[in-house]
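Usage

Read records sequentially. Each one opens with the input sequence:
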Amino acid sequence: MANSSKVARIVLYVLLSLVVVVALGLGFAARYMLNFSLAPDPNRSDVDSAYALLYERFPDMKPWVDSVSSNGILRDTFVVMPSGERHHALYMKADNACGRTAVFVHGYKDTAVKFLYFARMYNRDLGYNVLLPELHAHGLSEGDAIQMGWKDADEVLEWIEIARDIFHNDNYPDKMIVHGVSMGAATTMNVSGKVVPDYVNAFIEDCGYTSVWDEFSMQLKELFGLPSFPLMNCTNLLCRMKYGWDFAEASPLNSVARCEKPMLLIHGDDDTFVPTSMLQPLYDAKPEPKQMYLAPGSEHARSYRDHPEEYTKIVTEFLEKWNK
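and closes with the structure output:
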């Protein structure tokens, strides 16, 4: 009997030790994954490198950027958000805007500079004023962790008001749209599910994900070959404890279901980073009015680069209908 009791205690100690080791291992792995996913780019404030990357992707952008910069058309501004953080944006006025403004939202670990080709499309080709905010912990905006388009939506609502202050013309009614790519698309969809000013007429999302949980689960399997349980659950809990939000509630899918204003949903049909399969659930969840564009052969965030004329035409026709 004594030996049996001793063996039972040993087994219990071993099991408890294994539980502790597994818990410590999961805790360490969760901290690593949270930092891996949400830590800002350490070079995010390197504006020269951002311009170099822009010109590498779009060599024809440099003469245009030089022109609008030298003529004082391309400008920047810093504002203090309700959080007390100092955030940055680029903006451009158009003489023929007639009250029309586009707020364009960049992607994950990107900056406003890298998306100036969309500013050119809106400003030069469509005659829009353009504001390109840099999200929390991106570019020259302050912040300690990426928010994956969730809390960013409230900051974009602030930028919408700021854009109106910058561009308002008493001779014309304000007519504004919000357009985002990748994480910026997720941000745009999350904005669309909130109460927005009456002068925000439409939204365009390009290759956004259904939820942070869905995207991170897919990347966990793709990059590390791991299932979502239990590491995602532990990482999610740590995110909630540290940053006050979790991956499941950060759901553009739920947000678009509340959006009653027009939305154009865009995706490349060869996107594996944010899988093309996420487009249909988003489209199905969005009430009318809505429109879809599936860019043939395009990988993630390359729909405009691959099909600039078709992309511009589709955006132009959508906005001519809904942002009159």
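Summary fields computed downstream for this record:
- The domain at 43-211+250-322 is CATH 3.40.50.1820 (Rossmann fold).
- The mean pLDDT is 93.
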